[in-house]
Design goal:
- This protein has 299 residues and is an alpha/beta fold.
- It has three domains: 8-89, Orthogonal Bundle (Arc Repressor Mutant, subunit A); 95-162 and 265-298, 3-Layer(aba) Sandwich (D-Maltodextrin-Binding Protein, domain 2); 164-262, Periplasmic binding protein-like II (D-Maltodextrin-Binding Protein, domain 2), CATH 3.40.190.
- It has helices at 11-20, 23-30, 34-48, 64-89, 102-119, 136-139, 200-207, 223-231, 245-249, 279-298; strands spanning 53-55, 60-62, 95-99, 124-128, 143-148, 156-161, 164-168, 191-193, 218-219, 236-240, 261-262, 266-271.
- The chain has a five-stranded mixed beta sheet with strand order 4-3-5-12-6, with helices on one face. A five-stranded mixed beta sheet has the order 9-8-10-7-11.
- α7 links the parallel β8 (191-193) and β9.
- α1 (11-20) packs across α3.
- The longest helix is centred in the first third of the chain and has 26 residues, at 64-89.
- The chain is elongated.
- It starts with 10 loop residues before the first helix and ends with a helix.
- The model has no long low-confidence stretch (mean pLDDT 89).
- This is Transcriptional regulator GcvA.
- Belongs to the LysR transcriptional regulatory family.
- Keywords: DNA-binding, Transcription, Transcription regulation.
Length: 299
């Protein structure tokens, strides 16, 4: 007996509109116009013979029937996405699409990537550094490195590394008229800031220091630029252990005193269920864990 199905092309628009309670946000997510979403939803309502949304002047809300239908449609689309990912995982793949943040890419991943290429010449890495959470299937991402509190839903999430923050500087700041030898010497040096969640105010309080303005100094939106400024001797950075690991190992930066704060945010390797069936994903995952373990042995 043939299935009684709704207009399938309308379902993604309805599900996105129901999730956001906004036709405009659904349109932005699907990269279509507001009108296209509105027409798709209206077409679905006409075919079903029920009203899915109550439409206001500036807002929409789901009807009781719409709420129940949205839950079922969302679950069905998730299953289709997972099945698609599983079905395509077994095919040969030369290009590996990796997503991560700009800071992690610039200060940790890219300087080491040649070692992955040397061992896996048949795999081309395509790196996306938006830092935004991705829809793996829609955005064509195979594996991601995320920085956060973990608990990513609907995907496999493995802890890659903890992180601590502590002052780091160029070796040249240990010389001159005001050598940096103890925490109180920071008052003679410029503070470098990035957009990290733990700032100088927290570290100075932890160190029991007062009389130093935690907002003073130079600020960079991108962590990679903040690290480079510290390497060039522009001041003292509250360095994130993972992002400064290569510069510490190479002697371009050092920790002038051993007083660190542990961050509750950590690095995770994230990928869809079934992705490890793909040779390239499996190879990259293994390599990045090995590289991170090697870092811990050097610093």
């Amino acid at each position: 007996m043939p299935r009684k199905l709704p207009p399938l092309m309308s379902l993604p628009a309805f599900e996105a509109a129901a999730r956001h309670l906004s036709f405009s946000k659904a349109a932005a997510e699907l990269n279509v116009t507001h009108g296209a979403v509105s027409r798709a939803v209206r077409n679905l309502e006409d075919k079903l013979g029920i009203r899915l949304f109550d439409r206001g002047t500036r807002s929409v809300r789901l009807t009781d029937a719409g709420t129940a239908y949205a839950a079922a449609v969302g679950e069905s689309l998730d299953r289709i996405a997972a099945a698609t990912m599983s079905a395509t995982a077994a095919r040969p793949q030369r290009t590996l699409n990796v997503s991560t943040s700009d800071g992690f890419a610039g200060r940790w991943l890219v300087p080491r990537l040649h070692r992955f290429h040397r061992s896996h010449r048949d795999i081309d890495v395509r790196l996306s550094t938006s830092g935004a959470l991705v829809d793996f299937l829609r955005d064509g991402i195979d594996i991601a490195i995320r920085y956060g509190a973990g608990g990513y839903e609907g995907v496999v999430s493995e802890l890659l590394s903890d992180e601590t923050v502590s002052p780091v500087c160029s070796p040249q700041l240990l010389q001159g008229d005001h050598p940096l030898r103890q925490p109180s010497d920071l008052r003679h040096h410029r503070l470098i800031h990035d957009n990290f969640r733990i700032g100088w105010a927290a570290w100075l309080e932890h160190a029991g220091l007062d009389g130093i303005d935690p907002e003073s100094g130079v600020t960079f939106e991108a962590a990679a630029y903040a690290v480079e400024a510290a390497v060039q001797g522009e001041g003292v950075l509250l360095g994130r252990s993972v992002l400064v690991s290569a510069d510490l190992a190479g002697g371009r930066l050092l920790r002038p005193f051993d007083l660190a704060l542990e961050s509750r945010w950590k690095y995770y390797v994230v990928y869809p269920e079934g992705a490890l069936r793909q040779k390239s994903v499996r190879a990259f995952r293994g390599w990045i864990f090995d590289e991170m373990a090697s870092d811990r042995g050097k610093i």
